[in-house]
Amino acid sequence: TLLMKRARVKTFVLYAALFSVLIVLLLCDLYIGSYSILTSVGLQNFSNFFAAENGRFQTEIGSSFTNRSLFVSMADINKTATNIFFVETRCSTEKTLEGYLGNKGFVLTARQSCAVESTALTNPDREIYVFHSCPLDDDFLHYSPHFVVQLFRYPNVHVVRFNNSQVFNGSPVQRLFEKKLLENSSYPIEHSSDVIRLLLLWKFGGTYCDLDVVTLRSLEGLRSNWAGAESDGAIATGVMNFEPVGAAHYMLQRILQHINYYYDKDGWSSNGPLLVTPFIIRECNVLKVEEAADRCLINFTVYRRYVLYPIHYSQVRLLFDSILGPQAVKMVKTQSYSVHLWNKISRDLMVNVGSTQGYALLAEQFCPRVYQSCGTLF
Q1: Per the confidence metrics, is the pTM higher than 0.90?
Q2: pLDDT tens digits for 123-173?
Q3: Angle value at C-alpha 144, between 139 and 147, nearest 5 degrees
Q4: Which residues contact 295 (CB under 8 A, 6 or more apart)?
Q5: Overall fold of domain 84-316+337-349
């Protein structure tokens, strides 16, 4: 009898164990099935969301720009002092091109894009040409950051794909190109920019702007033929204007001829402000920069520092400060046409979107589309 009872207990335990295993397997099957369904739904929802966002982005590109061509050739540019030029020279030499051979999109950063937008926003009646040296597909917007796409909502912004032969041939600095002197420069990107900006102003006339400026108001308030003092002893070349004819134009030609034969490959600014300043002082027939601002004897104006360079490079950190920045912005908005951010010094300084840093406040007002499209950091 005892043995029979023990057998019944063992049988009961065995059946209970088997039943428990079946219950566990059933629950696992239900869980896995539910998880699969939920995962499938989740992935489908994510896929739908991604497709919708991508579709919205593609629709935005298509609807905004199908009515015009974004590209123009150099032959399409008129000779007029109202042109505005930006120049991107990362790929302007064979040495610097190597890193961008697979590139398809615009290489501008958010801050560089801000320079273009602020100028387009404040000068809607002027044509703006962005000279782009790196490879660029016809459908480059599909490969470019969203903040770049925003630039082409402005109908006066155009892209010019170029290489150095197009710019240098037939110019006063053709020898510089033929002997590949820029290829051997210690600063190929910077020196290419120094020379090409002068060349474009010589060829077409207009205003050149650096890609690290913020334009604050229409340039209509300035005369033709001008540059700005960045200090008591230097005239900067970050923002300047020349007519395509006249005395100032021929001064520009003489500057280019000097570069052609006396090009300095080792001086960082030797083909920029260090060269242009003494030329302008001599042509104006004065002894100092401050005198050129008062009485230049040719049709050329040297604006005082507050007009174009109100923040000296030694003070640029003010525009990255949340406490002092707002006061600096208030000051420059009152009296200046542009602000230079001195990228060589400030490029590693962080700007938080939505902060009260001076640069953030300027971007929010003067390049709002780029600023709102760049994420949490500007």
Answers
A1: no
A2: 999 999 999 999 898 999 999 999 999 999 999 999 999 988 889 999 999
A3: 125
A4: 284, 286
A5: Spore Coat Polysaccharide Biosynthesis Protein SpsA; Chain A (3.90.550)
